[in-house]
Amino acid sequence: MVSMSELLLRGVRRGVGGDLADVRLSGDRVVAITPPGEPAGAAEVLDADGGTLLPGLVDAHVHTVQWAAARRRIPLEGARSAAEAVDLVAAHPCGPGELVTGAGFRDGLWPDVPHKDLLERALPGQPVALFSGDLHALWLSPAALKLVGREQHPTGVLLENDCMSATAELPVASRETQDRWVAEALEAAAARGVTGIADYEYTDTIADWTRRLAATPPPIRVDCVIARFALDLAISRGLRTGDVVPDSGGLLTVGPLKVFVDGSLNTRTAYCHDPYPGSPSFGLLETPPAELVPLLRKAWENGISPAVHAIGDHANTIALDAFAEVGCPGRIEHAQLLRAEDLARFAELGVIASVQPAQQPDDRDVADRYWASRTARAFPYGALLAAGARLEIGSDAPVAPLDPWDGIASAVSRTDDDRPAWHPEQAIPLADTLSAAARGRSGVRAGDVADLVITAEDPAESADLRAMPIRATIMGGKVTFRS
Alpha helix locations (H) across 91-172? Predict the structure, then answer.
């Protein structure tokens, strides 16, 4: 990061379609916005060359270590079958006994079924761990199953809690290596205009980020989300959502409590009011109301706001009912399928819809199959906005890349290829999307915290939002990226 006590942003456009101005920063604040041509005085000058000045972008849902690791795994997003996924893995050179990892497979539409025997035939005796695109399934070879004490598992495909516990038991890189990977991933995020993230990693995130901060201050602010297993520890420490973590210089804050109500669409474990086609299954209810309500109440009474994972429409109803019974605000993470009668409850209850628009184009085909006749209310961003809900945009990286412009483009266009928009009535306007990607900020004003991004193009005139060129990113008045 480049630290400057005073910085003059010369010749920026104030927001989408805005007029040219000079913007002066002092310390971590915007202190003045004046017509262009202001004398620089003692300030350092960053020539924006007519770039568009926007509030810094905040990814509201990231699994940071998993994202950093996934950037180094064999990519499986393009696999159209289990056999093709195995071929992609087998083509990757590996040493004997080395754990081979791949990421991003989506088996919801595959004509065949993933199985440990497929991996064993292709890579005999090799430990192989393949992570699904939604992080809710883990496909292991027999040697990898042995590493996590599950040699007798019939298929090698572990779902939900089994997946997450096995993931935690797999061999990983050293802490120093993982921290270096995380630092590199956040530098890349800063280069895309990101000034903040919420880290939903299933660890003691406050301890992890305090350690990283002591070694290398991140170029990004971090909300340290509290995993369910760490709730009592957080309460004993006196942590409250929104508090600045001591000695972090404002870079780390205490986040909400993360609780799962259901699974995911691709694994057919999202909990729905209607069964999945051709199946008696309604999905998986991970935390029933009798357990969810006291858990949320315990967190809220101790100053910790809940963030509830809910993807299926029944899971969202249960989550909203719990917020209503406890009488607290909070967040629902994902909100991918909603009943019409639940839309207005987000605003009524003060519950933020934390959504990941980049997942909508990825999931449109599997939604068409497994949520057939229900897709008009899937990924319903337009309907949520019309009902007064506050939206915040994230990536759920590594489920989607930690690049806010991918989500912004998907929210506006409802497609990411040459196919027509999928349910275009659920698209949201660019201005609302940019605000949702900046945690509700809709412009830059004197007195604001100087978390900013300068794009080389006006987003309203861009031919390709996903490829948006970034001229500079500034966090707390410090330049974290400059093209």
Answer: 116-122, 142-147, 160-169
